[in-house]
Amino acid sequence: MSMIINPYWFATAGGGGLDPGSFLAGLDWFLLADNISGNDNDPVVDWFDVSGANKHYGQNTSTNQPTLKKNIYNGHASVEFATNDKLLPDPNPRADTAQNTLIVVCTPSSTSNSYIFGGNGGDGNPSFISGFGGKAFEYFNTNSERATFAASASGLHVLTITRTDSTGNVVGYFDTTQVFSIPVVADNWANRAINELGANANAAGDDFYNGNAPCWIHFNQNHEGASGLADLIDEIISYYAIA
């Protein structure tokens, strides 16, 4: 996890056409596989946040490094997690806030009981999970704040959560469709951070994710129902040609 920052990452923050900050205010985390330097099947050592907030992730241990896959989705790159791959904060995790809009573009895990990402709370909350009880995609913060994005799915999809601490609802979108709205519970995100990509640091065995995830976006505002959110999701779907 080298902390030598290449200016290239910030010069290409639009991601070759994908620019979340042009749709919504408050962009403070943006990982895009297209911005990872390397060749097809190279290990991913560093994945730089191009939002300007410097919330990078990486992996120094070779046996835990995911794989860069080039030209895999509509000509765009992805990061492939398999077996025991995971990325760690380098040096600081993406800290959640009192107002959140979190978008992860990913496939379901090919294995059961997998954490697409794990937070630093109990049982790895907050998190997006896959393969628990056979469900393709779920949101989890506590068992009283848990909901299903999609019971079954294949291929690449856009998972979105909007959330305000203490009051209101957690609203989840699967691609362009709102699929749940559940009450916020007391375990607020402002106390949490994303500890690992591709695993759960707070569980024995890590609950590793086995799948592809080319794009991660966080805004420090709740953009529930915003026209800009719908437009951004449409843009992501077009960018990766998600069916």
Descriptive tags:
disordered N terminus, 243 residues, 37% strand, 6-stranded antiparallel sheet, mainly beta, Jelly Rolls, single chain, 2 helices
Would you mind describing this structure in some detail?
- It is a single chain.
- The protein is mainly β.
- It has a domain at 27-32 and 91-240: Sandwich (Jelly Rolls).
- 7% of the residues lie in helices and 37% in strands.
- It has helices at residues 8-11, 227-240; strands at 27-32, 46-47, 57-58, 67-73, 76-81, 88-89, 94-95, 99-106, 114-119, 127-130, 137-142, 145-150, 157-164, 169-174, 177-183, 193-197, 211-212, 215-219.
- The strands form 4 sheets. Strands 1-18-8-13-14-15 form a 6-stranded antiparallel sheet, covered by helices on one side. Strands 7-16-9-10-11-12 form a 6-stranded antiparallel sheet, with no helix packed on it.
- Strand 10 and strand 11 (137-142) form a beta hairpin.
- It is globular, with a radius of gyration of 16 Å.
- The protein starts with 7 loop residues before the first helix and ends with a helix.
